[in-house]
């Protein structure tokens, strides 16, 4: 039955890990702005209607610069 | 949200501007088959379509704000100044800079998309991210390709105008987010879950050796988890109770702190001595629920500031001009006595100064409450805070910014005598009696049990202190008033703290400022009933006043819309007198009585404008303040319940009109200085009144702070408003009586739920006094009471909000 004590130790350790993850996410500012993230995820990389003038860059990532100007 | 197909169909029927959605009028500007209300909106669209950023229009319909005048000129030239740039930038290294800008215009998902895709508009931008809650955007850019000024001008060009004021330079003073409440909530929740698990064997009645082993070990674990709950998460309540007691003040935190400590130590004693399972689960639950209450209560509107001072009103930089006319820009902080500065149209005079060149027409409405601009001639002294209306003027600085009349006024308000303490919150009053009652009760039953059965004394006394811990009571206040505050917020009435709801419910006297509070900020109204003129003459007048920026001209022009402009020759504006010019062959003069008739008659200043055409006097146009829509209804409704006062810095020109709304002549006060306003409020309070002050300008700042509750009214809530308890968007002025009603309804809910939580306490106490409080009873009663109270309160607030026809969702 003492195996339960070992399991308890593991479960506490695991739960502690989640607590640490929570602390990290708070410190990282993930709760500062809960609105933008909910909108950002819905943005398409590029809505298909518009065609880029020069060459079509299909999935331009957030940080990539578009080649105009 | 992404229903892009629906937009063009709507467009055909409506006359809404493609960019901002406002009505385009009779002659919309057309481009690419889309219509625009003004050239500003069209320009923004052009910029976006050139940069392949038209997805902006796909995430929301009409996502823009009306752009108006896109002229930037050299307004942002000061951003090229090294010193200013260094202060604004978060960091700058190896050609990469990072800046954080506050942009009040951020309001929808399209805004986020566009601002995070700025690199489409300019290659110099490397990365940008939006904090929607704070309305901030953080932009990293290569400063070799894009200067800060160009970046800001780019944002201005797409009509996301960053707000750059003197206090955006105050880096050190920037608000730091306090994450403490999140950590404490996390720890309490974590321990609560674990303790509930480890308490399980304690509730089994089977008695064998294995169970006992578990019970002992789990008990020790519970103590281990109980320590951070009581002394980390619960520390706020303990320290706040201690601080209160040191000031001889019994707050609701005192019985809570007693409860937490007694719970912990009695449980620890029971577990270690093996006499019982302890109440650790109740303790963790208690602290967890209370922390949720704290978190809910402390939630604030982060993008709003209730603590602004003059620094957020002043610009960052000022233009200096040498005798030869060379301009240079310096940070406003470096402005020294004797410097010669240039103030352009619509710019702020940043320091007390002497006018040396040009004709000043200074609008002090925000600083002193005077509604019409004051004209200044060369050699006159100009106080800081006024806005120049008209051509550029040159001034010589007499006092540095920090010593100017305006700043002194501010500082004087800050230290102008100790503020009378506000009344105690209902929660404090109740907790005072509550604490005394509980201590009394535990002493009495302690004495009783001491004689009856001494071994029970300790158990009963601690049980009373545990069960009396006013968890549910402490939850009623934050949840009902926090809920009310959120209802207000959704209706554009923003409170600084939840306690303001209670303050609002208790006031009996309302003091209004005039200029900008009950009158509209966007200019004056013109009355043509005293003018005898043909339509053709009105056409001439309209064409002439177009050329002047004087508020009276602007008011007349606005009233006479629909005429196309006729060419004007020989236009001249005589400051403080009037304007004249040749329109369509007619010599037209518009201005003061003296200017037109060459006679000085008794007419109150600024209230009438005379018109003459080809030497013949046509009559006059009445110029008056425009009162806010629904002002009449609001005042007459409020007069039933409250004593109304008017406190204005302006002249008494409109006394006869206003007299009908206020109970007596004594309640109408004009020509009051900011200091006098503060004194007035103080006197009202001294006579036992509970005063609500509603104002808008710097001149009301002292009065707003002195009053029991200060509401600042603003057209744009993100722009400057003086320090206050609440900010009301001016469009919601007509709802003021309903807001006040709702604050009283919310307090009624507080009373009801307090009664309910007392019932729980009585039930708990009956267990405790008879010596029957087992951990199970406590573990059930405590969360049950908290959860039902929170549910009751939340539902009641939402239902009554619906009843008052507020947007409650």
Give a description of the structure.
The complex is a heterodimer of chains A (69) and B (809). Chain A is mostly helical and 69 residues long. Chain A has helices at 3-27, 34-40. The model of chain A is unreliable at 49-69 (pLDDT under 50). In chain B, helix 22 (655-659) links the parallel strand 24 and strand 25 (668-669). Among the domains of chain B are: 6-59, no CATH class; 77-169, Alpha-Beta Plaits (2-Layer Sandwich); 318-401, Calcium-transporting ATPase, cytoplasmic transduction domain A (Distorted Sandwich), CATH 2.70.150.10; 427-492 and 744-809, no CATH class. With 809 residues, chain B is α+β, with helices and mostly antiparallel strands. Chain A binds chain B through residues 1-2, 4-5, 8, 12, 15-16, 18-19, 22-23, 26-27, 31-36, 39-40, 42-44, 46-47, 49-50, 52-53, 62-66, 68-69, and chain B through 1-2, 4, 50-52, 54-55, 58-59, 109, 112-113, 116, 119-120, 122-123, 126-127, 129-134, 177, 179, 182-183, 186-187, 190, 193-194, 198, 210, 213-214, 217-218, 221.
Strand and helix map with partners:
The complex is a heterodimer of chains A (69) and B (809).
Chain A: H1 3-27, H2 34-40
Chain B: H1 6-13, E1 29-31, E2 34-36, H2 39-50, H3 56-59, H4 82-88, E3 89-93, E4 96-102, H5 109-116, E5 125-131, E6 136-142, H6 148-157, H7 180-198, H8 209-233, H9 235-246, H10 253-273, H11 280-298, E7 317-321, E8 327-331, E9 340-343, E10 353-357, E11 360-363, E12 374-376, E13 381-382, E14 387-388, E15 393-397, H12 405-415, H13 426-452, H14 457-467, H15 471-490, E16 493-495, H16 499-506, E17 509-512, H17 514-518, E18 519-527, H18 535-545, H19 551-559, E19 568-574, E20 578-583, E21 586-591, H20 593-597, E22 608-613, E23 616-627, H21 631-639, E24 643-647, H22 655-659, E25 668-669, H23 674-686, E26 691-695, H24 701-706, E27 709-714, E28 726-729, H25 736-769, H26 775-803
Parallel strand pairs in B: 17-24, 17-26, 24-25, 26-27, 27-28
Antiparallel strand pairs in B: 1-2, 3-4, 4-6, 5-6, 7-8, 7-9, 9-15, 10-13, 10-15, 11-12, 11-14, 16-28, 18-23, 19-20, 20-21, 21-22, 22-23
Helix pairs in contact in B: 7-8, 7-11, 8-10, 8-11, 9-10, 10-11, 10-14, 11-15, 11-26, 13-14, 14-25, 15-25, 15-26, 16-25, 18-19, 25-26
């Amino acid at each position: 039955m003492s195996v339960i004590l070992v399991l308890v130790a593991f479960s506490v350790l695991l739960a502690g890990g989640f607590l640490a993850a929570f602390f990290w996410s708070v410190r990282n500012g993930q709760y500062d702005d809960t609105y933008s993230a909910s909108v950002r995820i819905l943005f398409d990389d590029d809505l298909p209607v518009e065609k880029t003038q020069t060459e079509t860059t299909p999935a331009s990532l957030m940080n990539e610069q578009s080649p105009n100007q | 949200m992404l229903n892009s197909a629906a937009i063009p169909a709507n467009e055909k029927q409506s006359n809404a501007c493609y960019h901002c959605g406002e009505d385009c009028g009779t002659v919309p500007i057309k481009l690419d088959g889309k219509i625009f209300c003004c050239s500003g909106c069209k320009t923004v669209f052009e910029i976006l379509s050139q940069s392949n950023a038209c997805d902006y229009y796909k995430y929301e319909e009409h996502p823009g704000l009306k752009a108006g005048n896109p002229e930037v000129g050299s307004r942002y030239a000061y951003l090229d100044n090294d010193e200013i740039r260094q202060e604004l930038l978060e960091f700058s290294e190896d050609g990469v800079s990072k800046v954080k800008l506050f942009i009040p215009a951020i309001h929808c998902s399209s805004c986020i998309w566009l601002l995070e895709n700025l690199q489409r508009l300019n290659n110099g931008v490397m990365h940008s991210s939006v904090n929607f809650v704070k309305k901030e955007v953080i932009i990293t850019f290569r400063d070799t390709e894009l200067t800060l000024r160009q970046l800001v001008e780019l944002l201005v060009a797409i009509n996301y105008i960053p707000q750059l004021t003197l206090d955006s330079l105050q880096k050190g003073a920037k608000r730091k987010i306090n994450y403490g409440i999140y950590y404490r909530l996390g720890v309490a929740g974590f321990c609560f879950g674990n303790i509930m698990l480890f308490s399980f064997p304690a509730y089994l009645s089977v008695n064998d050796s294995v169970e006992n082993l578990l019970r002992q070990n789990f008990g020790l674990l519970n103590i281990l988890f109980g320590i951070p709950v009581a002394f980390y998460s619960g520390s706020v309540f303990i320290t706040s109770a201690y601080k209160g007691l040191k000031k001889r003040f019994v707050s609701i935190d005192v019985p809570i702190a007693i409860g937490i400590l007694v719970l912990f130590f009695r449980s620890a004693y029971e577990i270690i001595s093996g006499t019982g399972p302890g109440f650790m689960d109740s303790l963790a639950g208690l602290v967890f629920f209370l922390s949720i209450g704290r978190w809910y209560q402390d939630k604030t509107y982060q993008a709003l500031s209730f603590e602004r001072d003059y620094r957020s009103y002043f610009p960052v930089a000022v233009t200096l001009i040498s005798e030869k006319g060379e301009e240079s820009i310096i940070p406003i902080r470096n402005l020294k006595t004797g410097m010669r500065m240039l103030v352009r149209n619509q710019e702020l005079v940043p320091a007390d100064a002497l006018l040396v060149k040009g004709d000043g027409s200074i609008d002090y409405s925000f600083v002193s409450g005077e509604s019409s601009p004051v004209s200044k001639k060369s050699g006159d002294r100009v106080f800081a805070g006024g806005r120049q209306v008209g051509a550029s003027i040159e001034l010589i600085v007499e006092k540095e910014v920090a010593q100017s009349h305006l700043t002194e006024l501010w500082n004087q308000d800050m230290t102008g005598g100790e503020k009378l303490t506000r009344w105690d919150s209902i929660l404090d009053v109740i907790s005072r009696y509550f604490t005394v009652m509980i201590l009394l009760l535990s002493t009495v039953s302690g004495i009783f049990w001491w004689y009856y059965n001494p071994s029970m004394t300790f158990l009963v006394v601690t049980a009373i202190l545990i069960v009396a811990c006013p968890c549910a009571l402490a939850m009623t206040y934050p949840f009902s008033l926090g809920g009310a505050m959120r209802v207000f917020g959704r209706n554009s009435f923003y409170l600084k703290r939840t306690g303001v709801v209670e303050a609002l419910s208790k006031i009996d006297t309302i003091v209004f400022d005039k200029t900008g509070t009950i009158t509209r900020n966007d200019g004056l109204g013109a009355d043509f009933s005293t003018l005898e003129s043909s339509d053709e003459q009105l056409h001439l007048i309209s064409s002439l006043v177009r050329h002047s920026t004087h508020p009276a001209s602007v008011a007349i022009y606005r009233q006479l819309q629909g005429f196309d402009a006729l060419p004007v020759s020989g236009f001249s504006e005589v400051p403080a007198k009037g304007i004249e010019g040749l329109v369509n062959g007619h010599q037209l003069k518009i201005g003061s009585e003296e200017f037109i008739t060459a006679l000085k008659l008794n007419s109150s200043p600024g209230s009438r404008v005379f018109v003459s055409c080809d030497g013949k006097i046509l009559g006059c146009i009445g110029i008056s303040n425009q009162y806010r829509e629904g002002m009449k209804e609001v005042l007459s409704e409020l007069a039933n319940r409250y004593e109304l006062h008017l406190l204005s810095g302006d002249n008494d020109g409109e006394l006869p009109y206003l007299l009908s709304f206020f109970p007596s002549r004594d309640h109408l006060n004009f020509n009051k200085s900011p200091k006098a306003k503060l004194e007035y409020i103080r006197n009202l309070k001294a006579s036992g009144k509970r005063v609500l002050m509603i104002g808008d300008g710097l001149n009301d700042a002292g009065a707003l702070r002195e009053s029991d509750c200060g509401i600042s009214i603003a057209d744009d809530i993100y722009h400057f408003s003086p320090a206050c308890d609440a900010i009301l968007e001016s469009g919601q002025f007509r709802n003021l009586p309903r807001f006040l009603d709702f604050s009283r309804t919310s307090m009624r809910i507080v009373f009801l739920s307090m009664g309910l939580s007392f019932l729980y306490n009585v039930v708990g106490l009956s267990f405790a006094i008879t010596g029957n409080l087992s951990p199970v009873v406590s573990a059930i009663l405590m969360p049950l009471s908290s959860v039902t109270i929170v549910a009751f309160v939340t539902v009641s607030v939402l239902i009554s909000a619906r009843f008052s026809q507020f947007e409650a969702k």
